[in-house]
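Q: Given only this backbone (188 positions), what sequence would you predict?
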């Protein structure tokens, strides 16, 4: 849990506690407003000290009431400012949480897409390795067949050469036999 969430929870707990005493604060504020609206007692003209002390006490009470009421007004204004700030912070937090959730979902989606693409890439790599092996095998077979063809062509040339030599020798022999037969037939 982040410090912001803890802080907001503490502020919420404090606000809940203050809400319990809100009726007391409101009642005191109304009482202070009514007391401030009452007219001040008149100061006696004959200089009676008892009435003078009462007037001084009333004036002191009024002064104290004004100070307390001003303090209360300041405290309420500060509380309202804090509540406004809290509402804004809470709204910002909710927006950030929604954005965070959306980004988390986007990250999860991208992670799933990455996983699928990685699997597809591995499949392609495997396919390329298989095709590479097949190509190498075909190349080796072609090379082997080329060497064999060259050997067969050389053997064919050698055999043709031998055949020609044999035919030439045979033709020469037959030519000699024919000449011998011709020679024999002339003399006979």
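A: Predicted residues:
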């Amino acid at each position: 849990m982040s410090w912001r969430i803890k802080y907001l929870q503490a502020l919420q707990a404090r606000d809940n506690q203050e809400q319990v005493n809100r009726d007391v604060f409101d009642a005191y504020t109304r009482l202070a407003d009514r007391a401030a609206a009452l007219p001040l007692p008149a100061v006696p003209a004959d200089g009676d000290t008892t009435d003078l002390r009462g007037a001084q006490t009333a004036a002191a009470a009024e002064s104290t009431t004004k100070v307390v009421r001003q303090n209360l007004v300041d405290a309420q204004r500060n509380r309202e400012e804090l509540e406004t700030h809290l509402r804004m912070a809470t709204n910002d937090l909710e927006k950030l949480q929604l954005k965070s959730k959306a980004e988390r979902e986007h990250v999860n989606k991208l992670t799933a897409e990455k996983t699928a693409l990685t699997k597809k890439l591995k499949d392609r790599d495997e396919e390329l390795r298989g095709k590479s092996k097949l190509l190498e095998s075909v190349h080796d077979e072609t090379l082997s067949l080329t060497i064999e063809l060259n050997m067969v062509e050389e053997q064919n040339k050698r055999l043709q050469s031998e055949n020609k030599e044999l035919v030439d020798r045979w033709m020469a022999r037959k030519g000699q036999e024919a000449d011998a037969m011709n020679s024999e037939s002339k003399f006979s």
